[in-house]
Design a protein that fits this description.
- The complex is a heterodimer of chains A (66) and B (681).
- Chain A is mainly α and 66 residues long.
- Chain A has one domain.
- The longest helix of chain A is centred in the first third of the chain and has 13 residues.
- Chain A starts with 8 loop residues before the first helix and ends in a 10-residue tail after the last helix.
- The mean pLDDT of chain A is 84.
- The model of chain B has no long low-confidence stretch (mean pLDDT 93).
- Chain B has one domain: Amino acid/polyamine transporter I (Up-down Bundle).
- In chain B, strands 1-2 form a two-stranded antiparallel sheet.
- In chain B, α8 packs antiparallel against α22.
- Chain B is mostly helical and 681 residues long.
- The longest helix of chain B is centred in the C-terminal third of the chain and has 37 residues.
- The two termini of chain B are 21 Å apart.
- The chains are: A mainly alpha (66), B mainly alpha (681).
- Chains A and B meet through α1, α2 and α3 of A and α4, α10, α13, α15 and α22 of B.
Chain lengths: 66, 681
């Protein structure tokens, strides 16, 4: 599990790029699970990615501007 | 900083900006440095951000960091996530930036560099950035509600439905006109067509990597994809130089259009992980990279602008699109100055990720200022070309002719210098066989970018990359336009399924194959019809489709500002309602005037109906089809105009009732919850 303060510059950069591009972030998800629902089982990377795709495209896709 | 020092510093920045404008406006010489454009723009942005956005944030909105944002309250680790403000700024900018702010200014350069640049800079300060900021704020206070939902809840149901219909129709026109830009850039260009074709197998490979091989490893797959794209770009040159392969990838405009329509349909039907999602990442990566590179290139080179400040075409006789400076400069440049589409983004993912209320100022207002700067850069790239060359690339063949001698005669007749030999040399330098009448803005932007980039690489010690830079620019524009097309087709399909579900419930099942195929075909066929209309249009298609796109986009902005005004009035801040009402009124006036002229003007080049009438006695084979298209375009434009008038009237009634005390304003804001972040301050 990674906390913001323990992260290296490269990890922080990776996290920022994922947010900017709207990519899923499995590490951030694990951190959230640990904090919000401790002890409960978390999704596997592959299930997490499938869930991310479902949410991102559930109303067709992200709004793209012209 | 002591107060007097601050006053002196801000006065200096304002004076510097004013001198930038003065230099741009007073220039009567041969050329002027792009530095003045950058200075005028950046100084204005800085002053507007410091003073005007602060006024809106504190007086009008009363942003309150003690009030928890939806991201803090709901924080579900998925869409509602408190995000660092600069990271969110990047996310928001990546979502709002697209082909619009690049193409619009290039087309508007037919009026000279000054009108478009002034509108880009002044428009963003008082209209575009205000719209994005106000909608972001309103959505943030309502748990990230969409524009359509806010229109329904804050104004009334009619407005909500009108906004939905407007969005669907705008989408169709937007996709058609953007696809037309790609057709004009890729047709008869084996290098470009090959590179773009390669993006499809590359996307499949990335999709497979992220889904099957290494699930969720999106970043490494995207980096690999970008690397393969560069290989494809280099491979395109080999294809273009080999006569047999070049013939395979030299496509006619109609063939290119058919491929695009098929592509949009397939992308909408296939599972998203295969094509849509990987292409989305790829194009975002490239978009940010190319915009940053263009900014660096312009700052490094500070190229001279060769376009005059104002051309004779402000009288409405322009070859690229017909119509006078007012109102057509203001609808041709939609996205860089104000764009209704941004209201959809500002009420989409961004409001769910704000950590503090005050962050909305940087992201909403500041994000749009950056978009305007992209527009200024596109204007710069168009104006570094000799005006003669700019018109040779952008004017349709029906106006300038098809061989270099005719083109030279026409353009010299307009009073610009043009040498056929220079044009030929430039074409060869770009690795193409012809650049004449490559309408749509993308090719001339790519030529401008290639000129800037290659003089930047020359400054850094390299040379001979011009053709590579040109095709890099073409690839970057086409790639992210195609991403708008595939996602847009899918979004349109979902909207259509939702609407169709009211008639036939089974149709609304988003994973039922017959429904998927029918609705995707209807959307792809819808924009495909307008695309083919544009491809076959003797005047190049841009003349009719781009103004319709501009009108519809600005009318959506008008609806967004109307919703914003209603929210402001209901917040009992009516004394500040001019902040959104003035730009709303300006947009209503310009777009309704432009719409009226496009339909009813007596000049057949400008008015659809006059054009249809001019064909009444024509015996040409395509006359019937052209007339039908004129009537279709007129009807659509009239529908756009009626929707916006309806929305403004519905909202005005609401304002009258609330302000007159006849109706108790009910604001749909979520209740105040104390923020945990504020305690730490």
């Amino acid at each position: 599990m990674l906390r913001e303060t323990d992260m290296t510059v490269v990890q922080r950069l990776g996290r920022a790029i994922r947010v900017v591009f709207g990519m899923p972030d499995y590490d951030r998800y694990l951190t959230h699970r640990e904090a919000a629902h401790p002890g409960e089982p978390a999704l596997s990377p592959s299930d997490y990615y499938a869930q991310h795709l479902k949410r991102r495209y559930e109303s067709g896709g992200p709004t793209r501007c012209c | 900083m002591p107060k007097t020092l601050s006053v002196i510093a801000w006065a200096a920045v304002s004076l510097l900006g004013a001198s930038g404008f003065a230099m741009l406006a007073m220039n009567r010489g041969e050329t002027i440095s792009a530095a003045w454009m950058v200075i005028a723009a950046v100084c204005t942005y800085v002053v507007a951000y410091r003073f005007y956005s602060r006024f809106i944030a504190t007086r009008l909105m009363a942003l309150d960091d003690r009030r928890a944002t939806p991201a803090e309250r709901i924080n579900n680790g998925r869409d509602f996530v408190p995000t660092h403000k600069w990271v969110l700024y990047g996310h928001h900018f990546a979502a709002i930036a697209g082909a619009g702010p690049l193409v619009g200014p290039v087309l508007a350069a037919q009026f000279g560099y000054l009108p478009g640049t002034l509108w880009l800079i002044i428009g963003v300060v008082f209209a575009g950035a205000v719209q994005d900021f106000v909608i972001l704020f309103a959505s943030m206070r309502r748990n990230g509600r969409s524009l359509g939902q806010m229109a329904k809840e804050e104004v009334n149901r009619v407005t909500g439905v009108a906004a939905m219909i407007a969005i669907l129709m705008i989408m169709i026109i937007l996709l058609a006109v953007l696809a037309l830009v790609v057709v004009r850039a890729l047709a008869e260009s084996p290098w470009g067509a090959f590179t773009l074709a390669c993006t499809i197998p590359i996307a499949f490979g990335m999709g497979w990597w992220m889904k099957v091989l290494r699930p969720g490893k999106t970043l490494e797959a995207t980096i690999g994809g970008v690397a393969l794209l560069m290989v494809a770009l280099w491979g395109g040159r080999l294809v273009a130089e080999n006569p047999a392969w070049a013939a395979v990838f030299t496509l006619k405009p109609t063939t290119t259009a058919a491929w695009l329509i098929g592509y949009g349909f397939i992308a909408s039907v296939l599972p998203v992980w295969m094509l849509l999602c990987p292409r989305d990442y790829l194009s975002t990566f490239l978009k940010i990279g190319a915009v940053a590179a263009l900014a660096l290139g312009i700052l490094l080179v500070l190229p001279p602008l060769k376009m005059p400040p104002v051309t004779q075409f402000i009288d409405g006789t322009g070859p690229i699109f017909a119509g006078k400076l007012f109102p057509f400069a203001f609808i041709t440049i939609a996205c860089g100055a104000v764009s209704g589409f941004h209201a959809l983004v500002a009420s989409g993912t961004t409001p769910k990720m704000l950590t503090r209320e005050s962050d909305a100022r940087l992201i909403g207002y500041g994000g749009m200022l950056t978009e305007s700067f992209v527009g200024v850069m596109a204007m710069t790239a168009a104006c570094v070309l000799d005006p003669g060359i700019y018109f040779a690339i952008n004017a349709p063949a029906a106006i300038i002719g098809t061989n270099l001698d005719q083109v030279a005669q026409t353009i010299q007749g307009w009073g610009f210098t043009f040498s056929a030999a220079d044009m030929q040399a430039l074409t060869t330098q770009m690795g193409e066989t012809s650049l004449l009448s490559r309408t749509g803005g993308a090719p001339s932007l790519a030529v401008g970018m290639a000129v800037i980039f290659s003089s930047a690489t020359a400054k850094l010690g390299g040379s001979g990359f011009t053709a590579m830079w040109y095709h890099f620019a073409i690839m970057f524009e086409a790639l992210f336009i195609l991403t708008t097309i595939d996602t847009g087709t899918r979004v349109g399909r979902f909207m259509l399924q939702e609407v169709g579900g009211h008639v036939w419930p089974r149709f609304a099942e988003v994973s039922w194959y017959p429904s998927i195929v029918i609705s995707s075909a209807m959307i792809a066929g819808g924009w495909g019809y307008f695309l083919v209309q544009g491809v076959l249009d003797p005047l190049g298609g841009i003349n009719s489709l781009w103004p319709m796109f501009g009108i519809s986009n600005q009318l959506l902005a008008c609806i967004a500002l109307t919703v914003g005004t209603t929210v402001i009035i209901k917040m009992k801040k009516a004394r500040y309602a001019w902040v959104t009402m003035v730009p709303m009124a300006w947009l209503a006036v310009t777009t309704l005037t432009a719409g009226w002229q496009k339909v009813f003007a007596a000049d057949p080049k400008l008015g659809f109906l006059a054009h249809a009438a001019s064909l009444a006695t024509s015996t040409a084979a395509n006359a019937g089809r052209l007339r039908f298209n004129d009537y279709l375009n007129s009807t659509l434009t009239v529908i756009f105009m009626s929707v916006v008038v309806l929305v403004i009237l519905a909202a005005a009634r609401e304002w009258y009732l609330v302000l007159g005390g006849k109706k108790q304003p009910v604001l749909q804001e979520s209740p105040f919850v104390q923020s945990a972040y504020a305690a730490g301050d």
